[in-house]
Amino acid sequence: MQNLTTHLPTTTPTSLHRATTHPFLRRAGSGQIPKPLLSQWLSQDRLYAQSYVRFIGLLLAKVHLPRTPSPANDENGKAIQEKILDILISALTNIRTELGFFEDVAREYELDLNTPLAGLEGYEGRFSAGPITQGYIDMFVSAGSAGTSLLEGLVVLWATEVCYLRAWRGAAVYLDRGSGGDGDGDGGDLDGGALRKRFIPNWASEEFGVFVQEIGDVVDELGMVELQGGKDGEDALAKCERWWRQVVWLEERFWPDVE
């Protein structure tokens, strides 16, 4: 059977491309996102990150460690549940660091992380999760619920991270092309350089790529076990595909309209 992380992107090639090549990303890489719009988007992304903490907690509750220890100093001998535990702990540590990073960069570049959504009926002047952010929050609660398998939850985790990585690596292509705007700050960047100097290098980094690959590895390993066996395996695969499609749908709509 094909690895799950290889299979899932093939089910939504067009929508995945749109989600990870949005015009907002191109403008971000070119320094063409003004501070008010960046503040608005970061405010929503921060709410997303906060909900991610609870999601990881729900997934941790699904992990059942083996009663017998793994062989000493043998990474390959670790039980899959132990590997999943390690990944989830790393995810929790990373998101805590990320939340602090948001606040540090916001202070450095004078960005407001409590910026209400603009131009959206019912949200003017009131800071709260927008409809797509709320969609992510609700999805995390559902994907971590008692009726959802650990594999499904890990698929959601991997899907959100791999889409984010692909999106910002696409934006990073524009970093060396310079800003063509009329803004002030570093190189004319409309946000003063926050995206191109701080955020994008972090979100497109090799370190983040390794982390996403590690999540994918445990998804594939667990999938090889749980997706075997006739009708049950087919049903489990169909559920994973539905979660993937939901993440891609949300990701495409999470980026602000810039055109």
From TrEMBL:
SUPFAM superfamilies linked: Heme oxygenase-like
GO biological process terms on file: thiamine metabolic process
Domain Thiaminase-2/PQQC: from-to ranges: 19-222
Signal sequence interval, chain numbering: none
Taxonomic superkingdom: Eukaryota
InterPro entries with a match to the protein in the record: Haem_Oase-like_multi-hlx, Polyketide-peptide_reg, Thiaminase-2/PQQC
Protein name: Thiaminase-2/PQQC domain-containing protein
Organism classification: Eukaryota, Fungi, Dikarya, Ascomycota, Pezizomycotina
